[in-house]
Design a protein that fits this description.
binds zinc ion; about 25% strand; about 25% helix; 8 helices; eight-stranded mixed beta sheet; binds S-adenosylmethionine; alpha/beta; about 270 residues
Length: about 270
C-alpha cells in the first residue's frame, strides 16, 4: 500500500526494490538493509540527533532478553483491541523495532511503518519481520498525509504531540508509554547517593483525548554485569552521570529492580 509521501512534493511514493519514487520523478534510494532516507534536512540540531551505535546496541541487547515483555504484551493487546485489522500503524521513533515487531506479528494485514532519525537503529529494525516501510524521518515531520494513520506508537521517543494529532485519522489512537515515578529505582540507588523519582510527564495533549491510563509494574533481576550496564545505558540519565558514578555499577553481577510504566491511550478528536 502506498502511504509514504515524497518529502519534496508531497505525492505518494511507490516502493520499488531499490528505491522509493513519486510520479514527479523524485527518487530516494533504499539502503542495502531496506530502509529509505526521507529526511530532507541533514543539519544536525537538537531535534535530529538520533541514537548512536552504542545506545542502539545497548537497547537491542537488553530488550532481546525479554524483561520488558509485559509492557510489549500490553501494547500489542491494546493496539489489537483499538485498531482495524487492515489499518495503518506507524511507530514514531521506533528505534530498532522491538515493540513494532510485536505489534506487526499480531496485526498481519495492517500496514506497519517505522520512523526513526537514527540510521543505526533502522539497520536493526530492517532485520525484523512484518515492517512494510522503514524510513529515516523526524517524528516532528513525518512523511504522511493528514489523517492517514489508525494507530500511532510513541514509545520513549520525543513527544511531537501536534504532529501525532495531524497524522492520526479522526477516531485513530495514540499509544504512548511513559516511565513511572519509581521506574528502575534500585538501579538508580546503586548509582546515586540520593536518587530522585522521575518527574511525572504531562498527560494532556492538544487535539487528543485521553481514553485509558494503564499502569504496569514488575520486578526484574538482571543476570550479569553486561545486562546491568546495557539497561543503565538505555536510560536518559546515563549521559548526565559522572564517570565515577557510572563506575559504581561495574561491581554488580546481579541486580533486582522494579520497573514501572504507564501506557496512555488517546483518541484523535
Ligand atoms: C529511547 S529510544 C526508544 C526506541 C523505541 N521506541 C523503543 O522503545 O525501543 C528513542 C528513539 O527515538 C529516536 N529519535 C530521537 N529523536 C527523534 C526524532 N526527532 N525523530 C525521530 N526519532 C527520533 C532515537 O533515535 C531513538 O531510536
Ligand atoms: Zn516528489
Amino acid at each position: 500500500m502506498k502511504i509514504l509521501r515524497c518529502p519534496v512534493c508531497g505525492e505518494l511514493l511507490e516502493k520499488e526494490e531499490k528505491r522509493y519514487c513519486c510520479s514527479r520523478g523524485h527518487s530516494f534510494d533504499r539502503a542495502r538493509q531496506g530502509y529509505v532516507n526521507l529526511l530532507q534536512s541533514q543539519r544536525s540540531s537538537k531535534r535530529n540527533h538520533g541514537d548512536d551505535k552504542e545506545m542502539v546496541t545497548a537497547r537491542r541487547e537488553f530488550l532481546e532478553q525479554g524483561y520488558y515483555e509485559p509492557l510489549r504484551r500490553l501494547l500489542v493487546e491494546k493496539v489489537y483491541f483499538y485498531t482495524v485489522p487492515n489499518g495503518v500503524i506507524a511507530d514514531a521513533g521506533c528505534g530498532e523495532g522491538w515493540y513494532t515487531e510485536g505489534v506487526a506479528a499480531k496485526m498481519p494485514v495492517a500496514t506497519v511503518i517505522g520512523f526513526d532519525i537514527s540510521k543505526e537503529a533502522l539497520k536493526w529494525a530492517a532485520k525484523r519481520q512484518g515492517m512494510d516501510h522503514l524510513a529515516v524521518a523526524s517524528c516532528y515531520e513525518m512523511p504522511l498525509a493528514d489523517g492517514s494513520v489508525d494507530g500511532l506508537l510513541n514509545f520513549f521517543s520525543p513527544l511531537a504531540a501536534e504532529e501525532y494529532a495531524r497524522v492520526l485519522k479522526p477516531g485513530g489512537h495514540l499509544f504512548r508509554a511513559v516511565p513511572g515515578d519509581c521506574h528502575l529505582w534500585e538501579l538508580k540507588s546503586a548509582v546515586y547517593e540520593t536518587p530522585k523519582p522521575n518527574r511525572p510527564e504531562p498527560e494532556e495533549l492538544p487535539g487528543l483525548t485521553l481514553l485509558e491510563r494503564c499502569p504496569i509494574q514488575d520486578e526484574i533481576t538482571l543476570k550479569n554485569n553486561r545486562e546491568i550496564l546495557s539497561l543503565f545505558q538505555m536510560t536518559p540519565y546515563y549521559y548526565r552521570t559522572s564517570p565515577a558514578d557510572q563506575a559504581k555499577l561495574k561491581s554488580y553481577q546481579t541486580l533486582t529492580t522494579r520497573t514501572e510504566f504507564t501506557l496512555l491511550i488517546y483518541e484523535k478528536k
